[in-house]
């Protein structure tokens, strides 16, 4: 459940809650309908009971029901409606009871007070009974009489079932409508989160500088916090650039002084010491250049764009005019017009380092392929037909945290600067041995 999207989790929870609520509502409605049906049935039985009591007359010494209720079901055996009168030794029953007597429970109800019972009926099922105890006048022989009318309880049960069956499609339709409405509400309510993801993508690609303020009140604090973090990050980068610049300018004068010392040492006949100092000063200068390139590319890559194909053609055209590049067959192919999130000069510097390394090791040919990557970015492969790199050394090169400039000849500072530039632009650089020679793969974000 934790891997489901927030929208799907809320939709499932809403659908379950809707189903439970409508289920409980359906049960309640059926119960209320059953109560209403029973109330209507008792009202009908009360009318029949009044007709039974009103129709009693005295004929000779016998108490008879001269005017029975008009409903024909009383006259049909097991017709579903029944009446019964008990007055002393007299026991009168409807034809519908046939030879069955309703087993009325013993109670001490007051005269005229109706009582409701459920007792076994003539067909084995339960019947709903409404009975009343009355005092007969002298004209009817006096004494007490117990009159009752009944109906099959199965009719009430069937009425509830019919009501539930008729109501079920409407409840199902209502559930679908409510679930659809809940989904629409989720789509509208969670739309700011989708916009939030899109805005983050814009920030990563450099198409936006800030989250902005056009957010609902619930999302605005998050957007404001992210903008504050972005501002702090830019300030840190700017301070780092300033420190790198200060470091470069601070080392420039001492390095120039060292180079001046080497000239004086050579004039004094100490060429070996001069060469050692020049080697150290040159290494320091290269490291300073590398750090400046890394800082510069990281600072401007977010808002930069470059046509990868054009930069490749420009770099290759320069290398073709060099002694090492002029002897090789440069094969450039792939898509045109692919834009990447990187500064043109930085991309040219990185590709130049990779291409120069390929030209040094290639035998006859260097192949360059530009294409669109699976995630929509820019995929660039540069391969030579040279001897490649031993697998043990290649594993060290690609190990996380390894420095390319410490891995031996041919994979020096130029490749390290290329990696720093590509990673500073949010891309990746991978080195691997191909079928023949070394292959460098660069992946950059689409611009």
UniProtKB/TrEMBL annotation:
Per the UniProt entry, the Enzyme Commission number(s) are 2.7.13.3
Q: What is its main location?
A: membrane
Q: Write out the annotated subcellular location.
A: Membrane
Per UniProt, residues of the Histidine kinase domain are: 246-447
Q: What stretch or stretches form a coiled coil here?
A: none
State which residue ranges cross the membrane.
170-190
| GO annotation, biological process | phosphorelay signal transduction system
Database matches in InterPro entries: HATPase_C_sf (IPR036890), HATPase_dom (IPR003594), His_kinase_dom (IPR005467), Sig_transdc_His_kin-like_C (IPR004358), TCS_sensor_his_kinase (IPR050428)
Task: Give UniProt keywords alphabetically.
Answer: Kinase, Membrane, Phosphoprotein, Transferase, Transmembrane, Transmembrane helix
Output the Gene Ontology cellular-component terms. Answer: plasma membrane
GO MF terms held by the record: protein histidine kinase activity
UniProt xrefs under SUPFAM superfamilies: ATPase domain of HSP90 chaperone/DNA topoisomerase II/histidine kinase (SSF55874)
This one is known as histidine kinase
Q: Which organism is it from?
A: Roseovarius tolerans
The gene is phoQ
């Amino acid at each position: 459940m934790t891997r489901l999207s927030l929208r799907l989790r809320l939709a499932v929870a809403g659908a379950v809650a809707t189903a439970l609520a409508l289920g409980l509502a359906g049960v309640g409605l059926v119960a209320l309908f059953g109560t209403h049906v029973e109330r209507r049935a008792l009202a009908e039985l009360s009318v029949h009971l009044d007709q039974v009591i009103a129709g009693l007359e005295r004929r000779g010494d016998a108490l008879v029901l001269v005017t029975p209720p008009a409903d024909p079901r009383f006259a049909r055996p097991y017709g579903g409606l029944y009446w019964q009168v008990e007055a002393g030794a007299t026991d009168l029953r409807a034809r519908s009871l046939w030879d069955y007597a309703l087993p009325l429970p013993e109670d001490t109800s007051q005269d005229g007070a109706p009582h409701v019972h459920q007792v076994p009926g003539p067909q084995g099922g339960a019947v709903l009974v409404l009975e009343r105890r009355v005092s007969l006048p002298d004209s009817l022989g006096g004494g007490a009489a117990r009159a009752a009318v009944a109906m099959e309880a199965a009719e009430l049960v069937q009425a509830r079932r019919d009501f539930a069956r008729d109501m079920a499609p409407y409840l199902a339709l209502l559930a679908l409508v409510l679930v659809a409405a809940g989904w629409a509400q989720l789509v509208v309510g969670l739309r700011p989160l989708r916009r939030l993801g899109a805005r983050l993508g814009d920030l990563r690609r450099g198409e936006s500088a800030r989250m902005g303020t056009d957010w609902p009140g619930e999302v605005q604090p998050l957007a404001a916090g992210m903008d504050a973090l972005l501002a702090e990050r830019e300030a840190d980068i700017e301070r780092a650039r300033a420190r790198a610049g200060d470091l470069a300018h601070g080392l420039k004068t001492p390095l120039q002084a060292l180079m001046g010392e080497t000239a004086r040492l050579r004039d004094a006949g100490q060429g070996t010491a001069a060469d050692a100092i020049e080697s150290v000063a040159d290494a320091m200068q290269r490291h300073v250049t590398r750090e400046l390139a890394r800082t510069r590319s990281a600072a401007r890559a977010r808002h930069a764009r470059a046509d990868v194909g054009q930069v490749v053609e420009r770099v290759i055209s320069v290398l073709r005019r060099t002694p090492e590049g002029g002897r090789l067959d440069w094969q450039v192919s792939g898509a045109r017009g692919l834009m990447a999130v990187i500064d043109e000069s930085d991309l040219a510097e990185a590709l130049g380092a990779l291409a120069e390394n390929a030209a040094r090791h290639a035998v006859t040919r260097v192949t360059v392929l530009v294409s669109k990557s699976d995630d929509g970015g820019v995929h660039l492969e540069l391969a030579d037909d040279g001897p490649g790199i031993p697998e043990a050394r290649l594993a060290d090169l690609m190990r996380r945290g390894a420095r390319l400039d410490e891995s031996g000849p041919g994979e020096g500072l130029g490749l390290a600067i290329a990696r720093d530039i590509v990673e500073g632009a949010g891309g990746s650089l991978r080195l691997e041995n191909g079928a023949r020679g070394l292959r460098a793969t660069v992946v950059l974000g689409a611009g």
